[in-house]
Amino acid sequence: MRRSPVPGAALAAWTELDTGPIPGGGSLRLVRRDDEYLIVVEGMELMGSHRSGSERDLAILACAQLRDHPAPRVLIGGLGMGFTLRAALAELGPDAKVVVAELVPSVLAWARGPLAHVFGACLDDPRVEIREGDVTRVIQSGPQAWDAILLDVDNGPRGLVSRANDRLYDVWGLKRARWALRPGGLLGIWSGCPDRKFKARLQRTGFSVVEHRLRSERPGRTPHVVWIATRPAEGV
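and the corresponding structure tokens:
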């Protein structure tokens, strides 16, 4: 996701296609200008169809480590415009299972409607299962269920859309993710900016962590970050 302010005058040049409520309060707007689409909340660009590099990197950095796994199970938190999902599918083999949890019903509707050309055929891939609801509940559904959990939810540890998303990134949220991963499993997290305290929090909850700083596609902007956190193997 992108989190960049969209000035009111600039946003006026866009055509609003739809508005969708966010469970718990607030709303998302889908806007279009020529062949470019944005999803906007409170004047902030959450994601855009023409800027998707770091969302793809989140999936590539994690799923590349699963190429030799015979049948990996991957959970993606946040559908967005499908960039993370498509990148994951490109990295994973035919026996993989990819579950995508999306909280906002309108995002799911847009994926089958005005954004269908952006998504292509990925939603119909037999490896994919879409679940409407909070990714936290999916994480809590059972221990050692996933080989990788990829979170591109809100703005990462510093949320903008919903304060409830913060529970994914606090100590208990990270412990739940570790519990839900198989030994050696990966937790991949996208963030709109660096965060030393969060990296330390990952380490305190028992993960080994590699931080990847990714150049923003907007010149001069703060780099995006992907953390790949690994649950230690059994007995460690």
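(Above: one complete record from the training split.) The first helix runs from residue 8 to 11.
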